[in-house]
Write a structure and sequence with these properties.
Oligomer: single chain
Structural class: alpha+beta
Radius of gyration: 14 Å
Shape: globular
Number of strands: 6
Number of helices: 6
Helix content: 25-40%
Strand content: 25-35%
Distance between the termini: 25 Å
Order of helices and strands: EHEEHHEEEHHH
């Protein structure tokens, strides 16, 4: 099974304000509080004043410029940026969290763990039958950014 998703997770109101600020589509609700804003390459470009020339180690899309945009966008809120890249159970994931304009987690990339650790900072706790925070918020429901974007138009 493959999982290639890039996006932002935050409280619904904060993420909606962030999306509006940058002219991005409305986020997808994950639960009563948190939402996901799937980010494709065009949307990531909308967040940056100039094309990314380099990327943070362990990430495919996270650049220093994107980190600055996320930092600025996290004033009076908490923003979690994440990437997954798995195929056949092997791959990596990465996450970074900004709260009130400050970096509070990461950037961290590993085979397992960064997204769960970052979600825990947003207050997510594993709720069985889910095995971890990732499943608790339903990130396994769609395996690609495009699938998440399509699900947003179905709501």
């Amino acid at each position: 099974m493959a999982h290639f998703v890039t996006g932002l997770i935050a409280r619904r109101t904060a993420l909606r304000a962030f999306a509006n600020r940058y002219g991005l589509p409305a986020p997808v609700m994950l639960n009563e509080v948190l939402a996901l804003l799937p980010l494709d390459e065009d949307m990531l470009d909308a967040l940056l004043p100039a094309p990314a020339a380099d990327f943070v180690a362990g990430f495919n899309m996270l650049s220093p410029g994107l980190m600055q945009a996320l930092q600025a966008g996290s004033e009076r809120s908490t923003l979690l940026y994440f990437e997954t890249e798995y195929f056949g159970g092997m791959g990596t994931q990465g996450a970074v969290v900004f709260r009130d304009g400050e970096l509070v987690f990461g950037p961290q990339s590993a085979e397992l763990g960064p997204i769960n650790n970052a979600l825990a900072l947003l207050g997510v706790r594993t709720v069985p039958p889910a095995v971890d925070e990732f499943e608790t918020v339903g990130l396994q429901l769609h395996g690609s950014t495009d699938e998440w974007l399509a699900s947003a138009t179905e709501d």
